[in-house]
Design brief:
11 helices, 5-stranded parallel beta sheet, about 25% strand, NADP, about 425 residues
Length: about 425
């Protein structure tokens, strides 16, 4: 029996990055293959599709095989694989001649945009979700009211029986730097290419600090060196040295979709131990090829007697102060009685991202959340009497493994979520 006044959508996706793009493929596939009628739509705050646009650096390559695209591991015959994208662009043979599994980040972004274009009618760009509110009938929440706002301030309201949240992480700003939030001389790596050209670093004598010891910090350091030859660059990090990421074949098996089952079935303590064991695959590490490139730059600098790049390991930042002459950063060597303070024209925070299971726009339904965890199909656990299904993509590393924030499981995870949504769609039609 059909419900009276059904919601506008069966599923609304918040965010249209790789995770929800993969879901769009899976939902569309299910509709075509199974004859289902799942009505889905996505809301994206960016004005157009871009994947990490602030870090699409020249010469930066993917750190994951192109076979782990949005769909190939589930259905290599799909018309939306990376291989078919190459074929449609007339570059398949040329890419094969590159003899690599790792396309440039710029090209992979173009592939994602190509897929996004095929779902253009299913996405509203330039809309930021500001609230998800319960729609109640008696004591039961039967649907969700999703309120979004455009750049011009116009608000839109949609209703849905299901929600898939995939808005990515928020830039992590270390506590010492938070008082400077909004200072134009400080920027997070996520906005690097958007803002770095406005910082006046092309002038001789300019000085910039890059904070962090991972992939983004190393990439930015190399890019700054090429982009601003007269600028002095200090790479400040806490470790003893820059460390290589481990992408060896057996270690990489932790990113197989099948490993998610193993991880989910472990106790909480054992999960934490696994994450600690394999942190060097993804956190505070640098791709070995990039490490070699940076080392060669530093060696040539020694040969020529230059000092453009200065590595500052074992550094603990103690104070950060903004003044007319720049941002003063004071550091202590963690293993020696030495300290120094330097003024910078720009400070770039390559300090990663924070991910919260309960996004601010979900606050109106917070009282209906049973606990801040998801089940095996990535569904948020809600209290009795809450009928809509809320799935989360990219917030379950602690329960589902290190692959949860990466591209590795997108094809399979999207299918698992689509199956969960399909049961809801069937219930609507009964």
């Amino acid at each position: 029996m059909m419900h009276m006044n059904p919601p506008d959508y069966d599923v609304l996706g918040i965010g249209l990055g790789p995770s929800n793009l993969a879901l769009a493929i899976a939902l569309d596939e299910a509709n075509r293959v199974n004859g289902a009628a799942c009505n889905f739509h996505f809301l994206e705050r960016q004005p157009r599709f871009t994947w990490h646009g602030g870090m699409l650096l020249p010469g930066s390559d993917m750190q994951i095989s192109f076979l782990k695209d949005l769909v190939s591991l589930r259905d290599p015959t799909s018309p939306l694989t990376f291989v078919n994208y190459l074929h449609k662009q007339g570059r398949l043979e040329d890419f094969a001649n590159c003899k690599t599994f790792y396309p440039s980040r710029v090209e992979f972004n173009d592939y994602l945009r190509w897929v996004a274009d095929s779902f253009a009618s299913s996405c509203s760009y330039g809309e930021t979700v500001i609230a998800v509110e319960p729609v109640q009938a008696g004591g039961t929440v039967t649907a969700l009211r999703v309120v979004s706002r455009s750049a011009s301030g116009r608000e839109s309201v949609r209703q849905t029986r299901g929600l898939v949240v995939a808005v990515g992480g928020a830039p992590h700003i270390p506590a010492l730097f938070k008082p400077l939030y909004g200072d134009p001389r400080m920027l997070h790596s996520s906005r690097y290419l958007d803002l770095i050209g406005e910082r006046g670093l092309e002038r001789p004598g300019a000085r910039v600090a890059v904070i962090g010891g991972g992939q983004s910090a190393a990439e930015i350091t190399v890019d700054l060196q090429a982009r601003f030859p007269e600028t002095r660059i200090d790479l400040i990090f806490r470790g003893h040295s820059l460390k290589p990421s481990d992408s060896s074949p057996f270690v990489n098996e932790i990113f197989h979709p099948s490993y998610t089952d193993f991880m989910y079935d472990l106790s909480e303590d054992d999960r934490e131990a696994v994450v600690r064991t394999f942190r060097n695959t993804n956190y505070a590490v640098v791709d070995p090829d990039l490490l070699e490139a940076l080392h060669k730059i530093l060696y040539q600098q020694k040969v020529e007697g230059g000092s453009q790049i200065n590595l500052m390991p074992r550094s603990q930042i103690t104070t950060v102060t903004a003044g007319n002459e720049g941002i003063a950063v004071a550091i202590e060597d963690r293993f020696a009685e030495a300290s120094q303070q330097t003024r910078y024209d720009a400070v770039i925070l390559a300090t990663g991202y924070e991910r919260s299971l309960l996004q601010p726009f979900l606050e109106p339904i917070a009282d209906h959340v049973e606990d801040l965890s998801v089940d095996r199909s990535y569904r948020l656990k809600m209290r009795d009497g809450f009928l809509p299904r809320i799935h989360l993509q990219g917030y379950s590393e602690a329960s589902h493994g290190l692959s949860d924030t990466l591209l590795s499981v997108l094809a399979i995870r999207s299918q698992e979520i689509a199956k969960s949504i399909a049961t809801m769609t069937r219930e609507r039609c009964e």
